[in-house]
Write a structure and sequence with these properties.
2 copies of one chain form a homodimer.
Chain A: H1 11-29, H2 35-45, H3 53-62, H4 69-81, E1 85-88, E2 93-96, E3 107-111, E4 117-120, H5 136-140, E5 143-154, H6 156-159
Parallel strand pairs in A: 3-5
Antiparallel strand pairs in A: 1-2, 3-4
The structure holds a DNA duplex (30 and 30 nucleotides).
DNA sequence: CTTGATATGTTATATCATAACGTTTAATTA
DNA sequence: TAATTAAACGTTATGATATAACATATCAAG
């Protein structure tokens, strides 16, 4: 039984695992897992919701660290570049990666009501260069390098409340 | 042989067809296809590239119509709501729909070099509520309503130049 | 321990988007 | 067709997201 955003799970273990994975990856690749990079990752990990850069700055400010926008964006760039976090394009917001370590094209399920975000694995054969575009890309000779895949809808809990689509 | 962004094709026919489809759809659904909405769609149709709202305003200004941002955003909202245009989330930019009329979840192929954007059909079984997420969504009880699917890479023409990935 | 590379602090500004309100145009109906 | 209501537009102001540029500090390699 996997634990995801929309299942109850041991969240502090979830956080610890992600931090350790990041630390290990940085050690192995000679990347500097600096204080602020670590702190921003911790802030993202605290909840399974996407956060804007300015939300992170606010959180830092609440902790006494009055940082300017580039501080947040630089930390986020580092985390995203190295696969520790992802940007949710349709929200202009960021979320900690829940598949640390593995090379992957992330795909997200975003609840429009509670704003929870789950990162999922794609079906076999749907990894971007392969299926998914049904050969349409291959047929026209397009070479896919990266993909943004973000689904929105209702998580199990929010479906109980039958909120109409808009 | 379908014509797409990355194939040579009769582009003025392409434009005419889209405009007529929009006009017909508006007539049928009692929507007002006003001058400015039509003009914005024409601007989007002129090229198979995504354009920012401010690019559109610039184009309008060049034509003597000195409009403010809400003018562009309102027209874009109308076009997107009614399926005549789409927003490319990863570019914060807009593009005319090339599958007018049909209900669809658009998927895009974006060339990182020439900035061309093609709208494609997904493989059968990949329409969002169905496959693609490999049952992951179903398994966790998530109800998908909409999806953002945007692939980036190199179009056939730009592959000739072997531009490295970043 | 010096040198070069990387990271951080800070100011300023660019880019994308919307709220709010008054005016105009279009659609509805008495 | 005139009165009434709804929709669209023009305009000002501002909010939200993101980056350029440069000075300072810290780290890492020779």
């Amino acid at each position: 039984m996997p634990h995801t955003t929309f299942d109850p799970h041991d969240h502090s273990a979830c956080i610890q695992q992600a931090l350790q994975a990041a630390q290990a990856h940085c050690a192995e690749h000679k990347l500097q897992f600096t204080k602020i990079r670590r702190r921003v990752l911790e802030i993202l990990l605290a909840q399974h919701h996407a956060m804007g850069a300015y939300d992170i700055l606010e959180q830092l400010a609440a902790e006494g660290q009055n940082a300017q926008p580039p501080v947040a964006y630089r930390a986020l760039d580092f985390l995203v570049s190295n696969g520790f976090a992802h940007k949710i394009q349709q929200l202009n917001a960021y979320i900690a990666c829940t598949h640390p370590g593995a090379e992957h094209t992330p795909a997200f399920l975003i609840c429009r009501t509670c704003k929870g975000v789950a990162e999922t694995c794609l079906a076999t054969g749907n990894h971007p260069p392969a299926g998914m575009f049904g050969g349409a890309a291959r047929d026209m000779g397009f070479r896919i390098e990266t993909a943004v895949i973000e689904a929105s809808g209702l998580c199990p809990a929010c479906q109980q409340q039958d909120i109409p689509c808009a």
